[in-house]
Amino acid sequence: MLSLNDARLRWNQIFDNFSSASSLKQAISEQLGAEDPCVAGLRSVCWKLFILYPSYTPQLWVPELRVHRSTYEALCTEHLTLIRGGTLGAPDIDPLAEDEGNPWEQYRLDVELRAEIMQDVERCMPDIEFFRQPTIQTKLCDLLMVYCKSADGKSLGYRQGLHELAAVLLWVVWNDAVEVKPPEEEKLETLDEKEDLMEVVLDGRFVENDTWALFCAVMKHAKEWYDAGPEGQSGCAPIVAKSKYIHEALLMATDPELAMHLKALDVLPQVFLIRWIRLLFSREFPFEDLLKVWDALFAEDTDLHLVDLVCVAMLLRIRWQLLEADYSTALTLVLRYPSPLDTPPATFVEDAIYLRDNLSSEGGNVIIQKYSKRTPSVASSNSRPTPPSRRRFAGRSTQQRTLSPSKSWTPASGIESIVQDVAKNVLSQSQRWGVNRAVRGAVEVRRSLAPSPGPPIPHPKNISSEEQELVKQNAKLIKRIAADEERQRTLARILELGMQAVENGNHAEGTRRLSHVKECLLDLTKVVNRSLLQQHVPVSLPGSPSPPLLSSPPIGTDDQGISATRTPNNAASGRPVIKKVAISPPGSFVKASFKNNSDPDFLSRTERPRTTLAQSSFAWMLGDDPAEKIKSSFVPKDKQGKRTGEAAKGKDGSMKANDIEDDVVDLGELGKMKGPL
Amino acid sequence: MPAIKKPMLKVIILGDSGVGKTSLMNQYVNKKFSASYKATIGADFLTKEVLVDDRLVTMQLWDTAGQERFQSLGVAFYRGADCCVLVYDVNNAKSFDTLDSWRDEFLIQASPRDPDSFPFVVLGNKIDVEEGKRQISQKRAMTFCQAKGGIPYFETSAKEAINVEQAFEVIARNALAQEESEEFSGDFQDPINIHLENESSGCGC
Ligand SMILES: Nc1nc2c(ncn2[C@@H]2O[C@H](COP(=O)(O)OP(=O)(O)OP(=O)(O)O)[C@@H](O)[C@H]2O)c(=O)[nH]1
Ligand SMILES: [Mg+2]
């Protein structure tokens, strides 16, 4: 709470120095430090102006404020009287009837709801003493309860995280409030126009009311982040779709290398974005910094659309660490976001605004360079995405790469150049799909819908349908990426087998595979010949035992080394392979029994030899933890589908389920426990 | 010992809000209890290296939000889990009643190869709270665990560090066994290999 004098100074700081809401917003974006109207002035008033009452002149919005206050009072009476121990309706109602009309039943539900909310309120912002005060906890709990039970939040109910959004707002409103001595018997409605507007706005008696109003304004846009989505296993919450969109469309457009790296690591974006977004970053920044982020966010974007790009800006800020990180390190970085020591927190919003207008890898590069003075490895005049492999090739001898196979073809250099082709192919992948273009296009539309300067006239309907379209497009794109990834993996496997064959001196075999891979890379519509996945296809064709010499280059140009590796053998790619089931020598694990699996991807993935490929130079194709991938590929699509060979599974550990005899062990453990046995 | 890749064990902790999942995980990993853990939003992640029968393994412990149902993390999150820890509060009957649905829903989401043998561990937490508050007896919990195929059961206190270490040791052991059985049934069809493996890695408890 402020003293009246202090409050007056701060109030004037705003209304004397800024003539309009837009000049106020401008001041926020300039990050004036101590002069900042949210610091030197009144943050709560700025926030109210930004997200609740866009008209600048207090005379215009104070009446609205009053309506909000009395609305809240009415809602409290409606929803809190019961639990506060008010009358329980007619006394002859059976308290046990489980009927919604029964006030006892309602009372029971209210008690449950309150306990649920209180459990979180008690754990809210544990390091800030303010929130440990019982009166503050009660306020927080009341306003959340009112929100969840009234029209605004009824469909949502209480969701963990709402408490933290409300807490920040309450803190800000409380801090700016003044103690107004209520004139005797004065009622809200009887305040006349001559009163001091400042005292009305900052009246400490209405801290809870005003917090509630701000909270409802924030929740108008934040609500869908909390939506649990459809019930049942197939359902996926909107926040998951949003996270995917941020990763695979927005981050992909601005920093494809990072986006692909995170994907390769298998870091699920929703795992950290749920918290980042739902709490509006409240756990990612120290409290003081957080307030500045919200200042900038509310000033710029009432609809909170910018949040998505703030996430991207945050990822770009730690992109170099992330690129070097393995799975655990990457998760730790995003779940314990390093606090930005030397840059003002509002720069995240500033970056997000920049990215909104420059959603491309050039835009991303600008942001990356701004903080790291380093440029992403690909010197790109075009917006060519960089594959994660790029850096790994950097250390290799260029001589090998440029060796023309027609001059001296050795298995090693030939293979090397095919590997190069694979890399190149991935390189242009996202560009080919027009990820950047699609996203940019959609953003253009969005921008044209939302006028930037001046008071924003939101078109929530249009924008959200626009966004939905984007999400739809993105889903298609993701499907395509997945299909293509699978294709790449199969090709990688064939390549690997080809290399093995060459290493074993079986050049014909090897070349057959290698050329098929090459053809598939040059012609994206070509169907991958899965029969080449067999470990040892019996040599049945008149293959040349020597390395293939080059003839009849295939369609398309190839600027990398080999221009073609066509041999008579590759005709086989179109033919049925003579023997489908390979003769498995000891130590080779071709799993015939798995071929019936309903998952079409199953065969190729399960046959991937773990160590050799993972250790090879194109291990990145598998993601960083191929073992993990292989494991998950065993998950049957239909759960009843027990495969043959299942019996081989070991029922080993004595602690395993089913072995009830073995819980002697558990009892042993229990014996050590405290408490009665 | 041949150079084997150090196993990564994925452990997912589930249970109603407020039963003490975050507290248990922190007690185990950081050896401390703090009354000031915030409500978990979405998920959180800690790793810990442990020795299981002289084998060094890394446990990836996933703490989840009790209020969150499965839709918000998505199926992919649960896939590849090696062990699932179900936590309830012995002083809160409702948190015990929901264990069954947590388990069922987990199996649906994670869809392990062999749901019947997938390792769960049940923890009844907050046993330090005064006796009069207790709502679920040890017997009741153990009956439940037996009915579900002999799930190991521990009574714990994250606050007083009772049984936490022991419970997670079993969790690590079972997760490792699961990881290995998955790996071997994935790579080998020859049952002989499985037997050999069992002998060398069989858990000595
Ligand atoms: N007495 C006692 N209190 C505990 C114990 N474990 C946790 N608590 C308390 O119970 C409350 C909830 O603990 P958390 O660990 O945050 O619960 P959680 O299961 O992670 O809850 P969500 O994150 O909401 O799912 C906190 O106030 C803890 O201090 C325990 O062993 N004994
Ligand atoms: Mg928790």
Account of the 3D structure:
The complex is a heterodimer of chains A (677) and B (205). By secondary structure, chain A is an all-alpha fold. Among the domains of chain A are: 4-87 and 102-180 and 196-225, no CATH class; 238-372, Ypt/Rab-GAP domain of gyp1p, domain 3 (Cyclin A, domain 1); 476-532. In chain A, 54% of the residues lie in helices and 0% in strands. Chain A contains 28 helices and no strands. Chain A has helices spanning 4-17, 21-29, 43-51, 58-80, 103-122, 134-149, 162-176, 197-201, 207-226, 238-254, 256-265, 269-278, 287-300, 307-317, 319-324, 327-335, 347-357, 361-372, 390-394, 398-402, 411-432, 435-449, 460-503, 507-522, 602-606, 610-615, 626-633, 664-671. In chain A, helix 10 (238-254) crosses helix 23 (460-503). Chain A is elongated and about 100 Å long. Residues 379-463 and 537-677 of chain A have low confidence and may be disordered. Chain B has 7 helices and 6 strands; from the N terminus they run E-H-E-E-H-E-H-H-E-H-E-H-H. Chain B has helices at residues 21-30, 75-78, 93-97, 99-110, 138-147, 164-187, 191-201, and strands at 8-14, 43-52, 55-64, 83-89, 120-125, 153-155. Helix content of chain B is 37%, strand content 21%. Chain B is α/β, with parallel strands linked by helices. In chain B, a hairpin with a 2-residue loop joins strand 2 and strand 3 (55-64). Chain B is globular. Chain B has one domain (8-187): P-loop containing nucleotide triphosphate hydrolases (Rossmann fold, 3-Layer(aba) Sandwich). The chains are: A mainly alpha (677), B alpha/beta (205). Chains A and B meet through helix 5, helix 12, helix 16, helix 27 and helix 28 of A and strand 2, helix 2, helix 4, helix 5 and strand 6 of B. The complex binds guanosine-5'-triphosphate and magnesium ion. Guanosine-5'-triphosphate binds at residues 17-23, 35, 37, 39-40, 65-66, 125-126, 128-129, 157-159 of chain B.
